[in-house]
Amino acid sequence: MKSAYTDLSHELQEILTRFFGHSHFENQSPLLHANEIEAFAKEIKNLGFVYFIHCSVSHYYSKEAKAYFHSLGYSNPSYQSTPLLTESERLENAQQQEEGFLITYAVRNIQSPSLTLEFRTKCLGSQAQSPSLSSVWLGADYQEREQYDLFGVRFNQHPNLQRIMLTEDWQGHPLRKDYAIDTPQYPWRSAK
């Protein structure tokens, strides 16, 4: 996906420069502020990025939660899998990181199917919110609902933000790192 950035059209390079200050990204997707994501999405859709591939979310602990789980002997993959860092740098990054969510989107240009653009936004805090992109790409509708259901990220102005995979009475969001895996949920797990 990332190699497609070097083959971008002049218009897309201008949009990337306007939003990010440059148009060349190596080994990472561009990171937008949540208040800019809808405007960016509309502009790249006008350039032919009309196929919505995915919306995915990653949850990160607060440094207090990381210290607590580390004291219990649990490791945290969100900082252990960071490439090209020493163990002390990984631990330092983990301790400085606030709790939040990283939302990653990928879209494809149908005139040039090999041209895929991936971009991200970060939402801090346990009650994360981000603008919905379902008004830009219809394909974002169900995927944002899935991320809301499993992670609890609220997509503002979403036309139908409700659970899509779990029952309405399900408590919590099971893919969050702070979700208690032994939470009783009828009929799957009964209360002890």
From the structure above, extract its key features.
Beta Polymerase, domain 2, 6 strands, 2 domains, alpha/beta, disordered N terminus, 192 residues
What does this structure look like?
This protein is an alpha/beta fold and 192 residues long. It has two domains: 1-61 and 99-192, Beta Polymerase, domain 2 (2-Layer Sandwich), CATH 3.30.460.80; 63-97, no CATH class. It has six helices and six strands. It has a four-stranded mixed sheet. Strands 5-6 form a two-stranded parallel sheet. Helix 6 links the parallel strand 5 and strand 6 (154-156). The longest helix is centred in the last third of the chain and has 12 residues, at 140-151. The radius of gyration is 19 Å and the shape is globular. Residues 1-5 and 76-85 have low confidence and may be disordered.
What is the fold named in CATH at topology level of the largest domain? Beta Polymerase, domain 2
Shape: globular
Spatially, the strands of the biggest sheet line up as 1-4-3-2
Count of distinct strands: 6
Report the biggest beta sheet as strand number plus sense, adding barrel if it closes.
4 strands, mixed
Strand content: 15-25%
The string of secondary-structure elements, in order, is: HEHEHHHEEEHE
Question: Can you name the CATH architecture of the largest domain?
Answer: 2-Layer Sandwich
Assigned CATH class of the largest domain: Alpha Beta
Q: How many structural domains in the coordinates? A: 2
N- and C-termini, Cα separation? 47 Å
Give the low-confidence spans.
1-5, 76-85
Radius of gyration (Å): 19 Å
- Name the average pLDDT: 79
